[in-house]
Amino acid sequence: MSVLPIYNCFHPVLKQKTKAIENIDDNINQLVRDMFDTMRNTERGVGLAANQVGKDNSIIIIDVSDVDELDKIPPLVLINPIITAYSDETGVYQEGCLSVPVLYEDVVRPDSISITYYDLNEKEIKMDATGFLARVMQHEVDHLNGILFFERLSSFRKTLAKNKLKKLQKGEYDVDYPMIDVDGKAHTN
User: What is the DSSP letter of 111?
Assistant: First the structure.
């Protein structure tokens, strides 16, 4: 088991767009295994993007098997994912993020999406997702594009979140998993 540190949302790696993967090799397979180990170590994550563990690869992992209505969906690996369509209908759901451990806020997102990605066997997958799975996919694709969920809040909600985010930026937070601070140093409780 290899648990990687998760990067604080204010670290520059999370504001950069990730790079498309050209070749799925042993290094990519190992990164995916490490990402699953890392997410499961937190005991609360359902999705993780590679840049959240400091890698600039366009990879997302998702495991929603503990969510009652989604327990039949196996863990997913999405390589070079692209959302190709969004529904007009939207919904509100409280989101959190392993890179933003101090904040949970209601975020408005489309209820359903169409997404194209590659699996670890380099097979192209086209999929329609709805509800919670669609939300997780959108949240994680945002990460790959350098967008954090709190940037999608209304101006009013952003203002209310400002103090929590300032504490996070200063390193004033507690987590029970390894984390890299804004300045690249390991965070300790």
Answer: S
C-beta separation of 172 from 8 below 8 A = no
d(CA 144, CA 160): 26
Annotation says 43 is catalytic: no
Helix (H, G, I), strand (E, B) or coil at 174: coil
Looking at the DSSP assignment, which residues form a beta bridge with residue 129? Answer: 113
Among the options 105, 122, 140, 172, which is catalytic? 140
Q: Which two tokens stand for residue 18?
A: 């990730």
Tokens matching residue 177: 């998993």
pLDDT in tens, 169-189: 998 889 999 999 999 999 876
pTM of structure: 0.95
Note whether 91 and 109 are within 8 A (CB).
yes
CA distance 35 to 183: 22
How many degrees, rounded to 5, is the angle at CA 42 between CA 37 and CA 43?
100
Side-chain half-sphere of 3: how many Cα atoms within 13 Å? Answer: 11
